[in-house]
Amino acid sequence: MRDLQKILNSICPVDKDYLKQAKLKLDSLTKPRESLGRLEVIAQRYAAIKEDLNPSIDRKVIFTFAGDHGVVAEGVSAYPKEVTIQMVLNMLFGGAAINVLARHVGAKVVVVDIGVDHDFEPTDGLVINKTGYGTNNLFKGPAMTYDKALQSIKIGITLADEYAGRGVDIIGTGEMGIGNTTPASAILCVFTGLPAREATGRGTGINDRTFQKKIDVIERAIELNQPDPEDPVDVLAKVGGFEIGGIAGLIIGSAFHRIPVVDGFISTSGALIAARMNPAINEYLFFSHLSSEAGHKKMLENLGQKPILDLDMRLGEGTGAAIAMSIIEAAIKIMREMASFESAGVDEALVITAGAFHLDGFADTIDGLAGGTDREKVLAIMRDSQIGSFAVVGLILILMLKVFALMDVPAEIKNRTLLIMPVLGRWSTVQLASCFSYARSGPGVALAFTQFAGKKEFVISTFITTAILIGLFQLKGLWILLVTAALTSLFGLFFKRRIKGVTEDIMGAACELSEAAALLLICALFV
Q: Is 1 in contact with 157 (CB distance < 8 Å)?
């Protein structure tokens, strides 16, 4: 095993140039920029970590480190330590939750006996590399010696080395150990200075009396052992656990090999230790979920990390990691398999046009229509910033229509088409503002717009738009203008009857529909 300090020193921050390149690639895909939200952030980070703009995830493994804890003797858990043995056997037989979820995402589960108070028979899927037969009782003294803490970390690094050599693309961490939320909470208290009551959760579902006992044990353990927050290994030795050390080592080794790590709850205490040993390691971590354990949110805040999921889980084993792997893989597939504007035959001008889409107004209008015939209900839905299921379908359809229509526009008039789309879209909003009353009162940009867009402005804008259309498409441009005007008028009349006028959302929707109608008409006239 290589020298620990050399490994730590060799782990550098993720290359910012790769982050920029990954962002540029994601922005070039056939979608509005950042429209896939955190999926794009995940893909960007993964690509930068791997230093590969066309990454893939083919081989996944989840390591479940198992160890016992002497502090269980103080009555801090709802279960005896023998349950650790039973659960390890259940995992090896394939019957635990982690086995089910790992099979679902196509991941291999490797159980690591790093400190269970039992001798298991060698079997497939089990790595026996004991640091000891359970930790000492941290309520009465250090959980382990400094050397044992280092040994547990090195076991994790060795596993990362081995599986990196096997070509693993992503590693998930998990644990099994009755009583291990007590050392995890203690580690949080030491590193952050939080009082034990704020850092401690109910673990396996303990009652109020046991919960208070758990808090008292953590406070006493920290007072007695005096772990040094400036020395992460000392913290692990004084109030940690063997499986937490193994996870910390696995994280360090995975960062060294640029194999991103997906973390769960107890694993986050291992991440705290690893990140204290080298802060750059934090950039290699994906945190799977926000546990319902009280201290987990505090841990993530301390690391400046945001979990992928929030499912009120608190089982451990690596179950959150397994679910998050499927999300990360989906994000990577978007980056690998989604067409770019260039490959789809849509030039860069479309990207500029996409940035000007009035998609929010279009979405709100569709949701409003789905709200029924009651005027106030429709207006209330349009005011709501949330997007409903009807809007999602509408957004997908309008974007697909525009992209595929542009692909069919002849190359010799494509630039002219891209130029006229926003012209017609904005002209339709002037038509609505000048010809129809506003549906609701109160201040707003759109209301101010309607006050200044009257009949005179409509005539002037119509004259200019007509001149542009004839200049670009000759007499066929008149057909484009007339059809757009007719559709916009029908659109306005419909909403005048439905809600007594138009709103800024309806104007945005008219802009979108006018552009789409113009595209279809141009295809009909010129293809």
A: yes
